[in-house]
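Sample intake sheet
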Amino acid sequence: MDLPIPDSLKFGLNFVHPLMMWLLLGLSIYAMYLGIQIRRLRAAEGEAKTALAKQRFNEKHHLVGSLLLALMVLGTIGGMAVTYINNGKLFVGPHLLVGLGMTGLVASTAALTPWLQKKQDWARNVHIMLNMVLIALFGWQAVTGMQIVQRILSQ
């Protein structure tokens, strides 16, 4: 399928997905920071607890997580769409497969929200574990994604 898109636009589209994913990696690290602050709040007592509570880490964490879910799904679809537009096919390899797995992980961790709101410890532990795996995979994806960008630039 050859869409009537100018070549300069097709070339520029190659960089939207990587830029968005780097932004999401940073946002993921910020969400992790917020989650750590929530754990500190649960363990705190007295004035320290009051001071931490005023910063509304839980609300920020929930909002950032919702944003991550939406942008991760859209970024994955967008990356696949641009690859297809520019090449007429998808390249099924580790970068694509891990990216799809990450999209499943972010959806799964967000799906734990009802149990997290009920303060279920098992849900918190699964949420933390899934997100640690997600951030590790994100780091790997950043490296392999930059290799793909370098290949595109050298062509």
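Comment: Residues 7-154 form a domain with the Four Helix Bundle (Hemerythrin (Met), subunit A) fold (CATH 1.20.120.1770). The two ends are 21 Å apart (CA to CA).
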